């Protein structure tokens, strides 16, 4: 059994995965341990909950790795945890993971967005900064937006709280000529790059192809602690 924790990044993951993967909601503390207890052979982490409840704990990822279970991460919480646990064998997937691993992206909130609940299909309500940056890079590479405009838009987006980051609020806060704002907003919407979604699809593909022989092999010892013991008793 291969388990993937995903929500707003790929709302239709269940239909895409078919029978190859078991889709579970965004990960929270204790979910990885439960997956190990359920007999999973590989785990993919894409989305995770981090505000209303305790987020997925590094220690439980290390425990899964110590049991020879492959753990892959991408796009959102998965990219963060993969960058933090790569030295212990967690596998990072995609451009966003590589940005965190290289230190080009450092803020956890750069992958965050406000979204509707599971009952409403996890519909996105705001924009993650990593997607804003990917969109600006693509448009700049195609020379459809100037470097000056791209820089002003990125600066404005980076200053916003992730729950307030939409194209209207970004454009409103950017240092741009008033006459250019409407045209730029339309250009950004039309050329939007959902890098989180692209990275997540890459993880789903990699995980579906993963065989038992590809499971993690760690060269370190897992040390149980009092907090770990309490988590196991929950």
Would you write up a description of this structure?
By secondary structure, the protein is α/β, with parallel strands linked by helices. It is built from 11 helices and 5 strands. A 5-stranded parallel sheet has the order 2-1-3-4-5, with helices on both faces. Helix 3 (58-66) links the parallel strand 3 (42-45) and strand 4 (70-74). The longest helix is centred in the last third of the chain and has 15 residues, at 195-209. The model has no long low-confidence stretch (mean pLDDT 92).
Order of adjacent strands in the largest pleated sheet? 2-1-3-4-5
Task: Sketch the major β-sheet.
Answer: 5 strands, parallel
Question: Radius of gyration in whole Å, from Cα?
Answer: 19 Å
Q: Which structural class matches the secondary elements?
A: alpha/beta
SSE pattern: EHEHEHEHEHHHHHHH
Number of helices: 11
Low-confidence runs: none
Give the overall average pLDDT.
92
- How many beta-strand segments? 5
**What's the N-to-C terminus distance?**
23 Å
Strand content: 5-15%
Could you estimate the helical fraction of the residues in percent? Answer: 40-55%
Anisotropy-based shape: elongated
């Amino acid at each position: 059994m291969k388990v993937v924790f995903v929500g707003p990044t790929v709302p239709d993951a269940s239909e895409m995965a078919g029978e190859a993967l078991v889709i579970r909601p965004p990960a929270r503390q204790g979910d990885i341990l439960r997956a190990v207890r359920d007999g999973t052979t590989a785990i993919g982490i894409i989305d995770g909950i981090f505000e209303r409840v305790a987020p997925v704990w590094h220690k439980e990822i290390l425990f899964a790795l110590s049991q020879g279970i492959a753990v892959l991460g991408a796009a959102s919480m998965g990219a963060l945890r993969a960058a933090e646990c790569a030295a212990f064998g967690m596998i990072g997937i995609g451009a966003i993971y590589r940005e965190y691993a290289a230190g080009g992206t450092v803020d956890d909130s750069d992958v965050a967005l406000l979204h509707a609940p599971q009952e409403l299909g996890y519909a996105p309500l705001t924009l993650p900064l990593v997607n804003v940056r990917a969109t600006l890079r693509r448009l700049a590479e195609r020379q459809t937006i100037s470097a000056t405009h791209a820089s002003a838009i990125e600066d404005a987006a980076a200053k916003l709280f992730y729950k307030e980051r939409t194209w209207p609020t970004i454009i409103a806060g950017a240092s741009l000529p008033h006459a250019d704002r409407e045209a730029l907003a339309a250009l950004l919407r039309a050329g939007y790059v959902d890098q989180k979604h692209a990275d997540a699809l890459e993880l789903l593909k990699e995980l579906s192809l993963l065989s038992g022989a590809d499971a993690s092999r760690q060269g370190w010892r897992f040390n149980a602690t009092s907090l770990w013991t309490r988590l196991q008793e929950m």
